[in-house]
Amino acid sequence: MQSQTQVTTISIKAKTSFIEGVIVSLLVLTVIAGITATAILTQKFGNVIVFQISGAIYVLAAALYIVHTLLKNEKIGKLATLTTFTAWVIQTAGLFIRGIESYQLGIFHPPWSNLYESLMFFPWLAVAVYMFIEKEFRTKVIGTFVIPIIAFLIIWGHKFNTDISPLVPALRSYWLYLHVLTSFIGYAGFTVAFGAAFAYLIKENEKVKVSPFHILGFFISLAVLIPLGYIVLNGAKDLKTMLLGAIFLGVLLLFIYFATYTLKFVAKYLPSKNLLSDVTLKAVAISFPIWTAAIILGGAWANEAWGSYWSWDPKENWALIVWLFFAAYIHGRTIGKWQGKTAAWIVVSGFIMLLICYFGVNLYFPGLHSYATE
After folding, report:
1. What does the alpha-carbon distance between residue 260 and residue 263 come to, in Å, rounded to a whole number?
2. What percentage of residues in the chain have a pLDDT greater than 90?
3. Angle, to 10 degrees, between the axis of helix 143-157 and the axis of helix 74-104?
4. Which range marks the domain in which residue 110 is found?
């Protein structure tokens, strides 16, 4: 009798959850449709303004996640999630608006054909993956490390050309929908994995004594990182800037290393190492096969466009390097050889390779993918 009652209770909860999900989905679609229709019909504001609004809201969400982590206040945590979801909904409307505007110009294409569009689309996917992870593992702390990256990317992305341009001949193919979409899902998932791995490393150092060397290294690397990053992202696209870019990545790795010690005061607010490790593994496990598919689809597209499955283009090479890093991570975790700190550092290093693949190649390495900077 008791068992039957439990089954009935679970059934009612599942039905209630389904109804709530349908209602929320309809409300979200209504809001997206409302924003999109208002923008298109009134022509008072376009996709760029909508993206800027979402970026500002992401900044607020990032601040709320940080406060939630430090204060462990559930109300602030719920507000952080709601704020992030609001920004994501507005960003979704921005993607729809940009697609419709490109259609009105007679040059319709999905909003991921150049660097600006990708910097709007990739964070959108990353937030979607993050919200799934947050709901799955019932922890909001990873948002402290992921959402600030999202906010930065969207705001920084507006330094590039925001105009809607016709697709270059190489992109006028149905492969654009398959290859590029899977690539960005991979980027998004690996970014979430990095946030969890970074949090794990901080938690790992919770009981380690922080020395003056760690604190000094943290502030020196940060002081070098900020101006160096500005030069790399805004400087001339020449050999000198490329060399500075390599130094920037080295300093970034040092900064992350020192930060895992210097920021240990937040370790007590983080979930267990096992949970953070599981989040990292799940994010990579979701992203890796999709990234693999992106490489295979890219090869098929390349063969159709240029007559060769693999041309050793800089983008192809770095995509393969990223694949090898995360393949090594999954292999090491599966056989039990690489666990804990070692596995987390492999994910961090893989993320550094991802940055080169995404930004470095687009900005500094001429090749078949150079159109991405247009």
Report:
1. 6
2. 41
3. 30
4. 1-164
Statement to judge: residues 302 and 216 lie in one domain: yes
Judge if 225 and 366 occupy the same domain.
yes
Residue 326 structure tokens: 């995360």
Confidence of residue 7 (pLDDT cuts 50, 70, 90): very low
* Residue at 10: amino acid letter: I
Q: What is the dihedral of CA 260, 261, 265, 266, to 10 degrees?
A: 10
pLDDT computed for residue 14 by the predictor: 52
Closest CA to 90 of 120, 67, 114, 66: 120
Confidence at residue 268, expressed as pLDDT on a 0 to 100 scale: 85
pTM for the structure as a whole: 0.82
Handedness of CA 244, 59, 215, 260 (dihedral sign): negative
Q: What are the CB-based long-range contacts (under 8 Å, 24+) for 79-85? A: 80/140, 80/143, 80/147, 81/131, 81/134, 81/140, 81/143, 83/57, 84/58, 84/127, 84/130, 84/131, 84/143, 84/147, 85/131
Of 128, 147, 164, which marks where a domain is finished? 164
Residues 53 and 186 in one domain: no
Tens digit of pLDDT for each residue in 343-370?
A: 999 999 999 999 888 887 777 766 556 5
Angle 160-166-171 from CA coordinates, rounded to 5°:
95
